[in-house]
Amino acid sequence: MFQLSIIKDTVPLHPATFGQAPEAALKHALNKKYANRVLHNVGLCVAVFDLVSAGSGRVRYGDGLLYYKVAFRMVVFRPFVGEVVIARVRSADEEGVRLTMGFFDDMYVPLAYLPQPSAFDPSERAHFWLPSSDDDTETAPADLLDSPKDARMYIDAGEVLRVRVESDMFCDDEPGPPRAGEGGVAPPPVRERRAPYSVVCSISEQGLGPVAWWKAAQVEGGEDEMMEE
Amino acid sequence: MEIIKARSAFLSNYEVLTLLRELEAEHIARTKTAVRIKKEEDAGHTHHDPNADEVLENLRTIELEGIQYLSADYQPTRQQSDAGIQRLVNNLASYDLTKAEKLQIVNLAPTEPVELYVIVEELEDRLGGQMEDILGAVSSSLDGRGVGQQAPPPSAGDGRRFGNALAHEAEVYVEEEQDYWQQTANDVEFDDMGEGAGIEGDLDVDDD
C-alpha cells in the first residue's frame, strides 16, 4: 500500500533556519512542500522517510537563501494493482460505492465490481447483495428490489470492506501557464474538478466485501467442523 | 523536482505507522518546547526557534488521519510488533510466495483461510497443504506486546501438537483483544524500532 519513492529537488532554506541542524531544516522544508499532496503518476505523499544525499548549500545572487540539492526518500501511498486493502464505506449512490481510508477518500467501487446480483436500494441509500438467488437466472435490478428484506446483504455506510485495487488514475487539471499571443484572457472552461488521484476497487470476488460477511461465514464453518469431530 | 525512482521499495503498514508515530511524538515534544520558550520569553528572554511555531498543517493532517487508519481496530497493526513481523517474514521465506503476496500477508495478517485465498492467487494449486502452516505463522506473529510468549515453531510431523498450540494461541489472542478494548486512548504504546529497518530490507524491490 505504501512505497518509498526517491525524489531529487532543490530546497531553499531561509536564514532564520540556519541555527538548526541542516538535516532537520531540510526535512521540515520537504515535508512542508510534499506532505499530503499528490505527485502525478507517483502517488499521495505522506512524509519524508530519510535524506539520501544533500549537496552543500549555495547562495544565489539576489536573496539570502541557501539552496540545497537534495535527494530524499518519500513515503508514498500508492496501492499496486491487485493489492487487497481495507477501507470503510464513505457513501453510496446509483453509480457505485465510495470508500475512504481516512487520509485518502478517492476510492470507488463501480457497479460492475459489486458482487452479482446486487442492486441499489434508494430508500436505504445503500447497495445490497442477494447471495441466495441462483446464479443461472438473470434478474433485472428492478426485480431485485422486490426481494425479501432479510435476504439482502447490505453494504452500509461506515462498514469495513476488504477490497482489491483494480486500477488507479491520475488527473492533472491544474491550468497550465497562460499562452502568449492569445491576446485577452481566455475564459477558463468550467468543469467539474476531478480528484488528482483516484483508485478503482473491486469487491466482486469471494472473500472481498464487508469483513463481517466473511467473519460470520467462518464462524459457521468452524462450528460445522466441530460437529464433524 | 525530479523523480529518480517512483517505487524503490515497498513499506509495510506497520513501518508507516511507526514513522507517523515518531513524527507525532516529535511534534508533541516541539509543541512542549515552544510553550516553555514562550513562558521564558514572557519572563524576559528573547530566544526564538522559527520552526517551533510553524506547524505544517498538511503533515499534521495526514499524520493524524494516517495513524487513525493504520491503528484502527480492524487493522492487525495493533497486535503486531517488530520482532513478530521479522519472524513472520523469515517463516514466509520458505514458501513459494511473491514479494507482493508476502507484503500483503504482513499488512493484512490473515488468520482465516478466506483471507488467504484473496491474497494468494491460485492458492490451492501452489500451496495446497501449506495453507494451515502459513496461517499458523501469521497468528503466532500477532502478539500485541512483542514479548516472546509464542510456542516454538512446531516440527513438520507434529501436526496434532501444532493444532493444539494454535488453539491456545487463539485463546491468548482473544484475551488480549479484550485488554485492548479496555485500554484508554492515552495508553497507546509507542515502540521506537528505528523505522522497522529489518522488514524493509526484505521487501526492497531492488538490492542497491
TrEMBL record, chain A:
Among the record's GO biological process terms, what is one?
transcription initiation at RNA polymerase III promoter
Residues covered by the RNA polymerase Rpb7-like N-terminal domain:
8-64
Q: Does the keyword Ribonucleoprotein apply?
A: no
Q: What is this protein called?
A: Polymerase III polypeptide H
Matches recorded under InterPro entries = NA-bd_OB-fold (IPR012340), RNA_pol_III_Rbc25 (IPR013238), RNA_pol_Rpb7-like_N_sf (IPR036898), Rpb7-like (IPR045113), Rpb7-like_N (IPR005576)
| CC terms in the record's Gene Ontology section | RNA polymerase III complex
What organism is the protein native to?
Coniophora puteana (strain RWD-64-598)
| Predominant location category | nucleus
Q: Where in the cell is it found?
A: Nucleus
What domain of life is recorded for the organism? Eukaryota
Per the database record, which ranges form the RNA polymerase III subunit Rpc25 domain? 83-214
* PANTHER family in the cross-refs: DNA-DIRECTED RNA POLYMERASE II, III, DNA-DIRECTED RNA POLYMERASE III SUBUNIT RPC8
What's in the keyword line of the UniProt record? DNA-directed RNA polymerase, Nucleus, Transcription
From TrEMBL, chain B:
UniProt domain RNA polymerase Rpb4/RPC9 core: residue ranges: 1-145
Q: Which family does it belong to?
A: Belongs to the eukaryotic RPC9 RNA polymerase subunit family.
Q: Which InterPro entries match?
A: HRDC-like_sf (IPR010997), RNA_pol_Rpb4/RPC9_core (IPR006590), Rpb4/RPC9 (IPR005574), Rpb4/RPC9_sf (IPR038324), RPC9 (IPR038846)
- Swiss-Prot/TrEMBL keywords: DNA-directed RNA polymerase, Nucleus, Transcription
Q: Name one GO molecular function term.
A: nucleotide binding
Q: Name one GO biological process term.
A: transcription initiation at RNA polymerase III promoter
The record's subcellular locations are: Nucleus
One GO cellular component, as annotated: RNA polymerase III complex
Q: Does the keyword Transmembrane apply?
A: no
* Region of interest called Disordered, as start-end residue ranges on this chain: 140-162, 189-208
Protein name (database record): DNA-directed RNA polymerase III subunit RPC9
The domain of life for this entry's organism is: Eukaryota
